[in-house]
Amino acid sequence: MADTPQEIHSVLTEARVFPPPEAFARRAHIRGMQDYQRLWDEAAKAPEKYWGDRAREELYWKEPFQTVLDWKPPHARWFVEGRTNLAYNCLDRHLPALKDKPAILFEGEPGDRRRITYGELSAEVNRMANGLKSLGVRKGDRVGIYLPMVPEAAVAMLACARIGAVHSVVFGGFSAEALQERMNDAGARVLLTADGGWRKGAVVPLLKNVTAALANTPSLEKVVVLKRTADVAIPSGSKWVAWDALVQGQSDVCEPEWVESEHPLFILYTSGSTGKPKGVLHTTAGYALGASLTTRWVFDLREDDVYWCTADVGWVTGHSYVVYGPLMNGVSTVMYEGAPTHPGPDRFWELIARYKATILYTAPTAIRAFMRLGEEHPRKHDLSSLRLLGSVGEPINPEAWMWYRDVIGGGRCPVVDTWWQTETGSIMISPLPGATPTKPGSATFPLPGIHAEILDRAGKPVPRGQGGLLFITKPWPSMLRSVYGDPERYVRTYFSELPGRYFTGDGARTDQDGYFWLMGRVDDVVNVAGHRLGTAEVESALVAHAKVSESAVVGRPDDLKGTALVAFVTLKAGIRPSPELKKELAAHVSKEIGAIARPDEIRFAEGLPKTRSGKIMRRLLRDVAAGKQATGDTTTLEDLNVLAALSQNDE
């Protein structure tokens, strides 16, 4: 078949299959592929009935909805006429039954710990909600949140939801400029922040950044400051308010604002790309349904679970799977403030053993970093409490998947590799751990009610085994509703490729069994000698080599091929770089997936440029590979020194 610009060549093969453990499947919410297929068929046959039934089961409604879906492509309104409140669904409806059950188990990086019950969390949220009201915050007002990973971040989000304010969380690693841009775009009236947070033993200068941003954020009327590090004093002046002073004396009773189902819940700005960040807007009921249902089904939640998603609340994963999803399901959620390897390389495993965590949900980049550090660190701790492992953030390569399953899960824990986005609000493609036979590196199948299709640019289905563009072809409740303040950008970015169908921006393929394999962002597809290759597959082949911990592959302009492949490779501990190893790795890729994917250049790197959420910033690597100065926003980088070292590295 002739190669056309919309086709993506798939070069990765994986034959291993792991059925759900029998004991796990017997107790699961969804017990086998027959159950999955029944739900899938139900949703496909009568989608509005399916979603309406799920919404009535999952959420408390002050006023019931009459219309399940009003769809005027590309604009959706779900559960029209209904009224609910997300804070009520996370807290009040669990009381008094769960009053004394831990809602949040918190560990700060310095080692301080807090156990906050559902009753205590409810009281804290109500006091902050009343505090916000005392500052003049009303339904529909935007409130910025710029906090470390501490329980008060969850309190702030829930307090906003309780009074119908719209929260916009800004990741604590962002700069003053990034904060300023987001607050101005949202038109935030109040900002909730802290004097600092802890990261790798140092204080993150949140208050310093806020002070710098304030000079150019005219909408901000008040800044509420939490004492976390005691390193700096709160500035004087009428604009500044101490967190403790605001909530002290406030009533722990606050009647929830019963909002329309489509009332805005939060604005979350996408990060790490060039150009103006997009303010992804999510509304209340549809988002809540997606977060609640997927948390229970994908992680097969039980009431005694101790659930740990390692994401920061500054990302959508922290919204859906640290705060809202777990709390709607009444389980205990772990929050950890600091770096995964501080003060030692076994901090994560120490936390799992201490809290007896049953579910771990983390990123492939973290897993690969732990692989590089070696098995001896998790082996020092009792991880037998774990019963389920999850992966999120980017495609996971089979080698990391197997290490995660065997070393962390002891070979007994199902692994759920999940695909979703800030824009989708909740998980879209994932195994159901009691039902789905898993393949290392595959997100397996769309969840019931999610219509994911791999198409070419003309909208035609791509044959199995061939890579194409991933679209969601029918609306779903937790989908974004707009780009805040820029509805034209919403249509242009997500619905212009094939009108009426949501374009994910990702490449994907299905194998002969119908399993979905994500191939990375379409931006990361490179044209090598007329063949379009997804760089994620080349990276996966490199990481399968016994000496490689992590890799990132990008393209650079080449007069002969059009694009040459440049691989940045981080080696496992104790392995030394050499010209011979470069040849060995290039030959390994050729053997694994063919000569077309053989890297033209391999650069060894001590580290790769990543955001603090663990995503590799390939945009910056493309600049380095081309010999250019790295351009665009670098405020999300975990360590700027990594980029400088790469630019100087000619090894």
In a few lines, what is going on in this structure?
By secondary structure, the chain is an alpha/beta fold. It is built from 20 helices and 30 strands. The chain is globular and about 70 Å long.
What are the main properties of this structure?
seven-stranded mixed β-sheet, GMP Synthetase, Chain A, domain 3, 651 residues, five-stranded parallel β-sheet, alpha/beta, 20 helices
Structure commentary:
The strands form 9 sheets. The protein has a 7-stranded mixed β-sheet, with helices on both faces. The two termini are 40 Å apart. The longest helix has 17 residues, at 118-134. Strand 4 (102-107) and strand 5 form a beta hairpin. It is of the alpha/beta class and 651 residues long.
Q: What would the average pLDDT be, to the nearest integer?
A: 91
> Largest sheet at a glance?
7 strands, mixed
Strand content: 15-25%
Q: Supply the number of helical segments.
A: 20
In the sheet with the most strands, the strands line up as 5-4-17-16-18-19-20
| Percentage of residues in helical conformation | 25-40%
- Which structural category do the helix and sheet elements fall into? alpha/beta
Distance between the termini: 40 Å
Looking at the overall shape, the CATH architecture of the domain at 545-648 is 2-Layer Sandwich
Please write the CATH class name of the domain at 545-648.
Answer: Alpha Beta
What is the third-level CATH name, the topology of the domain at 545-648? GMP Synthetase, Chain A, domain 3
Radius of gyration, taken over Cα atoms and rounded to an integer in Å: 24 Å
Quick one: how many beta strands? 30
- The CATH homologous superfamily name of the domain at 545-648 equals ANL, C-terminal domain
Uncertain segments of ≥5 residues (pLDDT<50)? 1-6
Task: Label the overall shape.
Answer: globular
